[in-house]
Amino acid sequence: MNINHVEHIGIAVRSLDKMIPYYEMLLGTPCYAIEEIKDQRVKTAFFKVGQTKIELLESTDPEGAIGKFIEKKGEGIHHIAFATDDTDKALQEAEKMGLELIDKTSRRGAEGLNIGFLHPKSTHGVLIEFCAK
Ligand code: CMX
To answer: With contact defined as beta carbons under 8 Å apart, do 82 and 9 qualify?
Structure first.
């Protein structure tokens, strides 16, 4: 699937206003971008840690993915995103391996990346995202 590196780790939080200063203190680096992704029903905040980013995710709708996750499990790690050369190709290869796709084809996510998710039921409880420029 040509996975290059861990692009980001997504962390569900109740409040970006509260958690941005906390992560700035913890990581010793400023939040460099805040972006709302309307179709994902989230507001995101990004930090750089070497080649990998930390993406904080605040729900904008209790019925969205993050709203439901927080309601069920509380705050915490939500997904791991792997950088690939081509998200659509990675999704097709994952499907050939028998993994269940949430996205049959890639869609536009935060930072303009092409993203696609695998279902955690087929990846032993870890929500995996592929992303590519
Ligand atoms: N990690 C691991 N397991 C998860 C999970 C997560 N992040 N989110 C849900 N699950 C589990 C649920 O606990 C449930 O398990 P059980 O059946 O054992 O209780 C199972 O997955 C199915 O859950 P569900 O309630 O039937 O389905 P949901 O409506 O909660 O949807 C999911 C789950 C993963 C399909 C949905 O959240 C999704 O489509 N996610 C992809 C998109 C996304 O996460 N967007 C937000 C981030 C956007 C961004 O980064 O920009």
So the answer is: no
